[in-house]
Predict the 3D structure of the following.
Amino acid sequence: MSRGIHPEPFVRLRPSAWRAAFVTIALHATGVVPANAHGAFGLYPATDFRITTGRCSDCLTHPAALWYFEREAIAVPAAGHPRAGFTPGVRPFDDVHAWQARRASDAPLDYPPLVWLAGTSVLEHATLAPDARSITAAGVTHPFALIDKIPLNRSWFDATSAAYFAARTLSVRGELRSDGTFVGRTLWPEDFRLRLLPPPREGPSSGAPGAALREWMRGAPRGGAQSPFAAWTAWRSARAPDDLAGRPVLAFMVNGAQGDDDEAHGGHFAIVTGRVGADGAIGTWLVNNFYTLDAESEKGIIAAPLPLDNYLGDLNSGQAWYRPSYMLVAVLNDERAAALVQSALGRVYNQFYRHQLVYYHPTDNCASISVDTLRALGWDVPARGPTSRGLAWAGFPLVAARERSIAKAKLAFDYLHTDQTRLLPAAALEEIFASLRALVTNAGSNAFAGGPLAQTLAQDVDALLFMRFPQFPSSRAFGDAPAVSTWEYRTRVPSDPALAQIVPVPPRPFPDRLRDADLLPPPRHASDVATWTWSAVLALIAAAAIAWWRRRA
């Protein structure tokens, strides 16, 4: 029998596979491409995933994770690819540390439980009409519509948005309707790219990396919210190439302060992994976003790994519609550090979705979850220390009395007591930058010391880049650079609580039926100790007062 091309594999295709193949061919003819047809989701080939929703019945993803995405388009790893797991009955970061210790250095990249796509189809190299009513890609023009605005979302796409996006080539995620209309959900400027090593930029004369980073975030008006996309090189090794195509990256993103939300002056933090595209594209990098699961976001945000173009450009949840953003990028000569971090984050997501790790803003937030993961992997990101432990203790009874709430006193205590590197995204980014500079500078010296991830980064980082993303124009007020300290945050919030801009959001209770039997009780917070201590002190004071009164009587 001939060993050449044989028709048998094609004959054996199931009817569903034939239909999928014909649909793909038909979509390509219209300029529309399935989201998993080619390209990547971070370090992963997009073709290694299948598109579904959280309602799928044959997904191997934990049911708790799928529950959050019942009405959302997601990509799940296809059969045959190693998936991130978790250890039952173990604290999440103890799990990560133990897993890293037993993981072989040449272990394959673990796949995440899911990737949040939002849209199942993509229009690439597309041009939007000035009135935003049509869009053209691959020579085909489609009627164009926007995804529905979430009712709690306080701003939306307007004429300034249309003018901004009509002036550039776009990648658009969304859905193609049966009438030929493409419904856009994510708009991404394709000129946000990084093909060549950007020009260098020196920091301040003091030489402190953290000070340089802060100056770069604040150097343009409103933190660069209305400035062009920009990138520059903060450091490079002698071996760093000028052409970055195909290079793996491990990056750290901070989104700035929002202009109309007084709960968001501290910004937001995320870890990013991926490869620079052949044409310098960065929109497919995978952003690992942690956000509270126990409330319905007014923007529809759900914690998940998701492509950068979706993370920044989703019309409802995209961060670029609310504030400027900044990214510190470590360009690597090997993907092993990025693969280690991404694989570990898959484990953290498993623990997060099933509620072994519960979001609590002062101590278990976007910054702390990310920094704790890096530390568990053997990169001792320096701690900046708490805002003020003394003030936390002294202020506890005062806040409790003023607010008539023990819960609010505990919250204030934990904010003041938590290491600022784990609390404030800008502080975390400054310490990460300083640590990376120290790692690459001291890598060859006898004084170098560090855990597994730190050692790998010291060997593999070829360049450190800084990128600034503007805020997309819309009806929303422009944001600014994030607050870098608790005190700065306080200065941005109106002194009169009635004047604060806050969007109340409904709770999203986690179903008891999805709680695994092995879940450990949540760890105690520092404020619990303060509550017990002050309760005992007040009880002693009350007892002494009563005794004194009785003696006097």
